[in-house]
Specification:
The protein is an alpha+beta fold. It has helices spanning 22-26, 44-57, 66-80, 122-127, 154-165, 209-220, 268-284; strands at residues 4-7, 10-12, 29-37, 40-41, 84-92, 109-116, 129-133, 170-174, 180-183, 187-192, 195-199, 225-228, 240-245, 249-256, 259-260. It contains seven helices and 15 strands. The structure holds 4'-deoxy-4'-aminopyridoxal-5'-phosphate.
Length: 285
């Protein structure tokens, strides 16, 4: 069980990074979180595709190709050698002047953190978690597009703090028009009258890798998924709610703003999709 940190291709046990890195100063960076089992990363190709597209969206030139990332993730996983690992791949703008202008940064830094994964307790999957619809709005797409996975997560941090204050484990955010978007680190699905619904990407949310897989799994197993726009209040009428993400996987929600969702226990559609997702990810390894 170990933590290893790869900094531009060199592996360390600890890492100090310059305070002049614009990733630190301004959140000027992109990142991905990937899981690994027995030192094999899950869906690394999909995460690298999103990392490169996030970087492109903020005009950050990653100084390596995807093959390099595959190799570096593999050696860092080997050095840490955990049964199950959390991998965080970060590319920052690099060091520059203490000024917001990125043109003074000439060399992006690539950091790969590998540590033992902290899993959600099994009881969360059995009972479901509590969430709150918070007042903090998800960033507008024409301000900081939530579909770019940058290191600037203050919007989500504020939402999470509001949820904590309300005694909930996570927050659901709406956008400036009041339409449902996503959780702080997960995508949102809900079930109404047997239909599986999820906010569409144009509501302003991250195109989650787990979200895409759950949509595909649902369709393959006879559940039609509708992507659309729903007002926040419509979530109170849901029979079931669940969140999806690399770390959460398919996570049932049993309480919304202190009120039970459906029976207050994970519903049948959620349980089926939890099972299907677990099976398909196991088969992939
Ligand atoms: N939305 C946000 C804001 C996130 O941070 C994450 C986690 N990366 C997700 C959704 C879920 O994405 P994924 O399934 O790719 O982990």
């Amino acid at each position: 069980m170990a933590t290893k940190i790869n900094f531009n291709g060199e592996i360390h046990d600890h890492l100090n990074i310059s305070v002049l890195d614009h990733g630190f100063l301004f959140g000027d960076s992109v990142y991905e979180v990937v899981c690994a089992v027995d030192n094999k990363p899950c869906y690394l190709d999909k995460h690298l595709a999103r990392l490169f597209s996030s970087a492109k969206a903020i005009s950050l030139n990653i100084p390596h190709d995807k093959e390099w990332f595959h190799e570096q993730v593999e050696v860092t996983l080997g050095a840490a050698d955990n049964d199950e690992s959390y991998i965080r791949i970060i590319v920052t703008r690099g060091t520059g002047e203490i000024d917001i202008d990125p043109s003074t940064c000439h060399s992006p830094n690539v950091i790969i953190i590998v540590m033992e994964i902290k899993k959600y307790p099994e009881s969360d999957y059995e009972k479901g978690i509590h969430v709150a619809l918070v007042s903090i709005k998800r960033n507008a797409r024409d301000a900081l597009n939530p579909n770019i996975k940058t290191g600037n997560y203050l919007n989500n941090v504020l939402a999470k703090m509001e949820a904590n204050k309300l005694g909930a484990q996570d927050a659901i955010m709406v956008n400036s028009w009041g339409h449902l978007t996503e959780g702080t680190t997960s995508n949102l699905f809900f079930v109404r009258d047997g239909r599986v619904l999820t906010p569409s990407l144009d509501c302003g949310l991250l195109s989650g890798i787990t979200r895409r897989m759950v949509i595909q799994l649902s369709e393959e197993n006879g559940f039609h998924v509708e992507e659309g726009k729903w007002l926040g209040e419509e979530l109170y009428g849901a029979d079931e709610i669940f969140l999806t993400g690399t770390l959460k996987k398919v996570m049932p929600v049993s309480y919304l703003d202190g009120r039970p969702v459906g029976s207050g226990k994970p519903g049948p559609v959620t349980r089926k999709l939890m099972r299907l997702y677990r099976d398909v990810t196991k088969r992939k390894l």
